[in-house]
Amino acid sequence: MKLLLVAESAPDSGAAAATERRFFYAPTVSRADNLFRGVVLALYGAKVTTGDDRTPWLTRLRDDGVWLIDLAPYPVNKLSSGDRRRALLEHAPARTREILDLAPDGIVICHAPTFRALALALVAAGAPLLHDEAIPFPLGNFRARFAAEVREAVASLGLGVPSIVAP
Q1: Helix, strand, or coil here: 91?
Q2: What is the pTM for the complete model shown?
Q3: Alpha-carbon torsion 75, 83, 34, 56, what sign?
Q4: What whole-number distance in Å separates Cα of residue 86 and Cα of residue 68?
Q5: Model confidence over 100-153: pLDDT tens digits?
Q6: CA 17 vs CA 12, 20, 32, 64, 128: distances in Å
Q7: pLDDT (tens digit, 9 = 90+) per residue, 30-85?
Q8: What separation in angstroms does the CA of 142 have from each of 6, 34, 108, 150?
Q9: Cα dihedral sign, 74-103-127-54
């Protein structure tokens, strides 16, 4: 594995969960897929839109050695900020061990609270974290900054060439 992306958790889709499962590896891009959009923009310089088939992009990510895991194994986005922070901190030791077992060439943490919960443990364990500061989550107004910072972080791995746009 070349690059491991670490996100917070799969989102709680609420009432839509039965009909619209939202997570990074879902087959179709939904309007709320900010992380997927940000990653594709960062690594390939391409914009994906709602309704797009993710399969070609997911295949390309896999073939390029890019994988994503979540720090928390269950949705935390609807928890209070304190409960959310505690959930991330609670799962950091186990995820650190799992990340070390995966042995990626590089790691990018894709969310500031997740960075605060996990980065010190990864660095202390000698894991190859590719950035020293939190990268903002790629909501629409931060997507370009997310893409630029991820691109910079992964440059040493030979990833993040924005001129390549087709899957």
Answers
A1: helix
A2: 0.89
A3: negative
A4: 21
A5: 999 999 999 999 999 999 999 999 999 999 999 999 999 978 999 999 999 999
A6: 7, 5, 13, 30, 35
A7: 888 899 999 999 999 999 988 889 999 999 999 999 999 999 998 888 889 999 99
A8: 18, 10, 16, 12
A9: negative
